[in-house]
């Protein structure tokens, strides 16, 4: 996304797309800037501290109660080849060790407050905004499970309850409008277990999320809305057929791994009566599932040949 943001002028000669300005894209992809903008817009965000050197580590860890979340300030390929996107850490000793390891790879990290609650307390609002900033399509979903639990990506999700969806759509629209966001965008929230407050975790700008199909399955085709908008055509969400039955989206392998964890709290989902669609396996289109198996086999062989464990045992830091 950084490359696309930096070369919009050149790409615009051959492609039609809708994106915010490069300045806005860069700002929203940088965690500290997003946090500042969110607070200015009235959104509650987790308390967070920036760690850029070993000197910062002890000072930050002394200031923030445990447990904490550790993540990079932005998506960086060198970092992501060795570490997960986020870690929940329970003790200061473990956090200090992990931070020093990470700083050797990428000297711009975030230590963030852990928001109490489970993965099923995480919500997301996905939208398509026109070149003038009008919301053309919007969908609010709720995670069921994540892999790995606590800090991982979506393993399964469903449409959010109506009341939650109304609140989060309004807040997301207000933030994106204030910051001149255009095109595909999303915002993730976590509902605080004790207070019930919605905490804004992070945005996704200029691209789809992995679980984006949950919206299409439930009658809101966001990629199609983006296509029409880029072609200068109008998309009306009311024109989309609403399914008679709500759908759950799940990555079967990740969801089963999450369910196998002894600490998994969301075991009763999906609720009875919801139809389940697999993220990758479809009889009519097995290509995505086969591609994943091929990709994983290749990574395993490559790791064996080079004696590299991939994301190595840093995975053990996950809750």
Task: Please name the defining characteristics of this protein.
single chain; 319 residues; alpha+beta; Dna Ligase, domain 1; D-amino Acid Aminotransferase, Chain A, domain 1; 2 domains; seven-stranded mixed beta sheet; four-stranded antiparallel beta sheet; 12 helices; 35% helix; disordered C terminus
Structural class: alpha+beta
Q: Tell me about the biggest sheet? A: 7 strands, mixed
| Parts with pLDDT < 50 across at least 5 consecutive residues | 312-319
Mean pLDDT: 89
CATH topology heading of the largest domain: D-amino Acid Aminotransferase, Chain A, domain 1
Count of DSSP E strands?
A: 11
If helices are DSSP runs of H or I spanning 4 or more residues, what is the number of helices? 12
Which CATH class of the largest domain? Alpha Beta
Summarize the topology.
Blueprint: H1 2-6, H2 8-11, H3 22-29, H4 31-40, E1 48-51, H5 54-63, E2 68-72, H6 77-80, E3 87-89, H7 92-103, E4 109-113, E5 122-129, E6 135-147, E7 153-159, H8 162-178, E8 183-191, E9 198-205, H9 213-217, H10 222-230, E10 247-250, H11 252-259, E11 275-278, H12 287-306
Parallel strand pairs: 10-11
Antiparallel strand pairs: 1-4, 2-3, 2-4, 5-6, 5-8, 6-7, 7-10, 8-9
